[in-house]
Design brief:
It is built from 10 helices and 16 strands. By secondary structure, it is an alpha/beta fold. It has one domain (22-288): Acetylglutamate kinase-like (Carbamate kinase).
Length: 290
């Protein structure tokens, strides 16, 4: 048992109320202890202090149980607030924010500030964490997504060794979704795209995409518990999903087809949704796998 692993008797000391059945936890620790779990933190978690603290608590529990977690955070709602203060209107194309030079500066500031806040809050819970962002230790080599989106990049290469170095030091990598092209120009990356690229590159067991809905819905507005990539493509083709759910599903399909065993779109508003997804059979959203 490593220094970070805790027995069931110790688990009771920090296992929260309203979390999954504690007796099931050791089974899932065995399932994931040699695997990587990538979690994309986004949506209301970014701006609601209570949800944010619950997110930090869940991540801290995974860390204390000896699991390898990589956090990729978005910044959409915080960026929106900052842009509105400056009367800058946001445009979106297929769920992706159009980013010009002025917007880019705000995006970078918001993401770096939030990166630091996650690290600080994890440290308060006795978790070691280190940040990876475009200002220092950039890990994304990107190319422009398309000219209409401006400074929005698509990851071409992930510098895995920088992530692995943090993991090897028993720390949690906290990653901002921005990167540089070959010329050193900075680009914003959709956080779901960034998280999927990392999950693919690291061949993670699970990719969790936090959002503000219960998961993916069918044409009757009923929650889908599990779908395969072909069914997910059909939801996009038939326009059953729309807005920000489109990039989520596209990235989920891409990750599954490139070595990630399962992608889950989970409700970040639900109490302990991460713990329910990792430590219970019922899960906490829509699971996409082959």
């Amino acid at each position: 048992m490593s220094s970070r692993e805790e027995g069931l008797e110790n688990l009771k000391k920090f296992w929260p109320e309203n979390a999954p059945n504690i007796s099931q936890v050791p089974k899932y620790i065995n399932k994931y202890k040699k695997e990587k779990i990538v979690i994309k933190c986004g949506g209301k978690v970014l701006i609601d202090p209570d949800l944010f603290n619950k997110f930090i608590e869940d991540v801290a529990i995974l860390y204390k149980l000896g699991l390898t977690v990589i956090i990729v955070h978005g910044g959409g709602p915080r960026i929106k607030i900052e842009l509105e203060k400056l009367n800058i209107e946001s445009q979106f194309i297929k769920g992706l924010r159009v980013t010009n030079k002025q917007t880019m500066e705000i995006v970078e500031k918001v993401l770096i500030d939030f990166n630091s806040k996650i690290i600080e809050k994890l440290k308060e819970r006795k978790c070691k964490a280190d940040g990876l962002n475009v200002g220092q230790k950039n890990i994304f080599i990107v190319e422009q997504e398309n000219k209409n989106l401006g400074y929005v990049g698509r990851p071409k290469k992930i510098l895995n060794e920088k992530i692995q170095s943090i993991i090897d030091q028993q720390q949690i990598p906290i990653i901002s979704p921005m990167g540089k092209d070959k010329e050193g120009e900075k680009y914003n990356i959709n956080a779901d795209t960034a998280a999927a690229a990392i999950a693919k590159s690291l061949k993670s067991r699970r990719l969790l995409l936090m959002t503000d809905v219960s998961g993916v819905y069918d044409e009757n507005k009923k929650l889908i518990n599990e779908i395969n990539p072909e069914e997910a493509k059909e939801l996009i083709d038939k326009k059953i999903v729309e807005g920000g759910m489109i990039p989520k599903l596209i990235n989920s399909i891409d990750a599954i087809e490139n070595g990630v065993k399962g992608v889950v779109i989970i409700d970040g508003r639900k109490l302990h949704s991460i713990l329910y997804e990792i430590f219970s059979d019922e899960g906490a959203g829509t699971l996409i796998r082959k």
